[in-house]
Amino acid sequence: MSQQEDQLKKVISHAKEYGFIFPSSEIYDGLSATYDYGQNGAALKRNIKDYWWKAMVQLNENIVGIDAAIFMHPTTWKASGHMDAFNDPMIDNKDSKKRYRADVLVEDYAAKIEGKIEKEVAKAEKRFGADFDKEMYLKTNPRVVRYQEEIDAALTRLNTSLTNNDLADVKQLIEDLGIADPVSGSKNWTEVRQFNLMFGTKLGSTADNATDLYLRPETAQGIFVNFLNVQRSGRMKIPFGIAQIGKAFRNEIVARQFIFRMREFEQMEMQYFVAPGTEMEFYEQWKEQRMKWHLNLGLGEDNYRFHDHEKLAHYANAAADIEFKFPFGFKELEGIHSRTDFDLSQHQEHSGKKLQYFDAERQERYVPYVVETSIGLDRMFLAVFSNALKEEQLEDGSERTVLKLPPALAPNKAAILPLVKKDGLPALAQKIIDDLKFDFDVEYDEKDSIGKRYRRHDAIGTPFCITVDHDSLDDDSITIRERDTMEQRRVKISEIKGIMEKEVSMTALLKKL
Ligand code: GAP
Fold first, then answer.
1. What is the pLDDT of residues 356-412, one digit of tens each?
2. C-alpha 308: how far from its chain's center?
3. Does residue 114 line the site of ligand 1, with CB under 6 A?
4. Which of 21, 218, 270 is the pocket-test mutation for ligand 1 (most atoms within 8 Å of CB)?
5. What's the longest Cα–Cα distance across the chain?
6. Residues with Cβ < 8 Å from 399, sequence gap 6 or more?
7. Does any ligand 1 atom lie closer than 6 A to the CB of residue 266?
8. What are the tens digits of pLDDT across the range 183-214?
């Protein structure tokens, strides 16, 4: 098993063991690529949502939030282009009977070569030490240059074939690159076909009057169709944004890598409506803003990179991904897209209703342009969770598993632990909880030795363990033990709330933005 696979396995089993994520309907052997969030997972997910929502809606006077229905009028999807073009190219292996996304097979091939480049770089870094110039090395080392050329050639051809809908060439490319089925090793492939990713369902009680509906494949369209409702009822002036968090559904051909690619997932999207001609300025601004939001969590600057799209969707005039270093390498976490006036114009045309804005400053009426930021909540969860999971060797030779979550996102901000279950310590612990629980998620825990309780709370990422001992009864003080450093400090009970506000609260995290 590769180190990457090993790390992902650890993430999956830790998530299950500690109540973060369970396979969906597990008692019936689960449903592929569908997951349920457990008690700790739901709390972590809600905190990520809060961080996004507050950063978007609460901190920006000109951004408001909505909650649109998952079902939408079917013409929405005709207008948005999803009915005709929301497809993935799929290919089957005739021997293993396994189905793949043809473009992902080629991308995985490229990623493998990129892995080789990373290995060469790591070797050279060791060899040259402080003198190592990575940029120069990437440009001049003949082997690395050859690898890069192989990657570029494969991806460029893939892009061209997909743009031209030349599916025969996609198959030819897979054959030319000698790509084998990752499971069986067979190279016996079918033709490549397009597969629409929308889930269909029916509205209506009888077959005769039933209407075809779709589960929304993105939340963005709920924002576009409400553009005028929000603009008028909120008297919004351009530039302004509409934010939304909600479920989206895609019948992914291959859903894999745990919660990275799911068929039912959640998106956090914001559409920023701007005057035509100003979109590039706002596109750059949002790229910067969104990266700042990520970096503020402290998961490490090296774990992020931008990937600017060269091949643009027909409606976009600029697009970039924020990629994160997941256990299986750098992959898309968030997209920032300059979508022009495509969506509003399409809805205007298909609905026959004007979706325009009168700009008092410019004294003109126009269909606004849109810059969109779109991030998968589950993907963000995986980024945070996988980055946080650490196994540490301690000074006394023992090991601990600790989830070093950004404190404001942790399911519980503190565990309140009476040293023993008697002598009035539980009652004092409960009193502390009663004081904190209106502002913070805190948990009472009296079972097992104090050492075992520390380990348990390390494993679910609780930033503070607050121990109530016999001295607490006399000196009104408790011991706070910090998750990451394991250092302990004695503080007055009256100081706890202030310390928590400063060190583990959402407000403190937002203030750093
Ligand atoms: N409205 C634009 C849009 O939906 P997208 O790149 O298709 O763009 C945006 O999706 C984000 O949604 C992605 O960056 C990713 O984080 C998340 N996402 C997309 N498909 C997903 C899936 N099958 N499972 C989990 N997250 C997904």
1. 999 999 999 999 999 999 999 999 999 999 999 999 999 888 999 999 999 999 999
2. 18
3. no
4. 218
5. 80
6. 391, 392, 393
7. no
8. 899 999 999 999 999 999 998 877 777 888 99
